[in-house]
Design a protein that fits this description.
The chain is built from 19 helices and 4 strands. It is mostly helical. Helix 4 crosses helix 5. About 5% of the residues have low confidence.
Amino acid sequence: MKEKVQLFGRFLSGMVMPNIGAFIAWGLITALFLETGWIPNETFAKLISPMSQMLLPLLIAYTGGNVVAGQRGGVIGAIATMGVIVGSDVPMFIGAMIVGPLSAWVIKKFDKFMENKVKAGFEMLVNNFSLGIIGAILCLLAMKGITPLVGVLNSAMEAGVGFFVNHGLLPLTSVFIEPAKVLFLNNAINHGILSPMGIKQVEELGKSVFFLLEANPGPGLGVLLAYCIAGKGSAKSSAPGAVIIHFLGGIHEIYFPYILMNPLLILSVIAGGASGVFVFNLMGVGLTAPASPGSILAIMMMAERHSYLGIILGVLVATVVSFVISLPILKFMSKDASLEEAQQKKDAMKSQAKGIKTAAPAAAPAKMGKVSKIAFACDAGMGSSAMGATVLKKKIAAAGIEGIEVIHTPVSSIPQDVQIVVTHQELGERAAHSNPNAKLVLITNFLAAPEYETLVEELKANN
């Protein structure tokens, strides 16, 4: 069951994450020009509703369709999603997540059926008219069939969230959210439930606390600060660097191994998260759009103008509560666990969350010419790979090596002109299939892998 939810969350994330920039643009326009914004402007504020009602759902639908069936899937997904958009008065994010991929699946099956059945010279005619006809039919069906279904789902979620809000129980959501983050179930919760609810609340109130429930860096910060004081060995020495990456960089994944070393610390992040949500709710604060990544800088940029004090206080309270609970756990109840073992455990869980099976990578080429391009690859090509690419760039520059470009990329679409691919060992097989001609460097820790030094030495000798 956990694996199915993880896969579902990964699919949702694949539709939303590439469009986070559009969400941020909408959030900034809302924060600036809404009636209660920093620079109220009636003309510019007219952008807010069309962007949330049409632009964002269409982008999600296109992205979801593109994942399933390429560009044709993206186009037909956007066409069909217009049906649920026009048929409803609320933003149809859930509708877009359903209709976009479903429509792409239909056109993919049609294209498969028509393969080798179209006479030469008629390919473009069949392709264009099949897309138009099927898209129009699906648009009408979505308007009459999917819209009521999504309306029921929205009502059910509103009732569930409303129960927590009306009874002052919103802090209890941390009991589910904080463990979910460590178990990589956060995408299913954040993108499947919290973001759609948050967007609707922003249209009504100009801000939403739902965007803060998962993004709050306070609980993880408290755990890392406790490790700075009461940790042991490599865990203690690496914690200060992890604090910066987590709090300012917004990569929450960095603190997961520290909790896996001492599972009792899950109590710290639950209590810290609940305390933060209590303060957010008490102060009536919220964001105008999702904060991604969950950096304090991104959170403050997306904050509604009257929410700064409450947000800072909520993050501070969450940090203090998490720290106070973590400290005695580390001092009196911690075991002599290895950070490296915890990293491997975290990586194995992450691989399971992404549906990746362990397999030996293909053999690397025995010899290659001068290296000019290296790729860091992770599942989405945005988080840990970007961080790893930055680390390697600095090491290459420090070694005085010039003329090498280091990029970060999704493991499924590694450019063919890349000569070396650095990726997590669990992604080795996928990387080998994506670019079979590149040499693979497999690591277990994106931040401090010993393979970096070996690679730099090889580059110095080779170049």
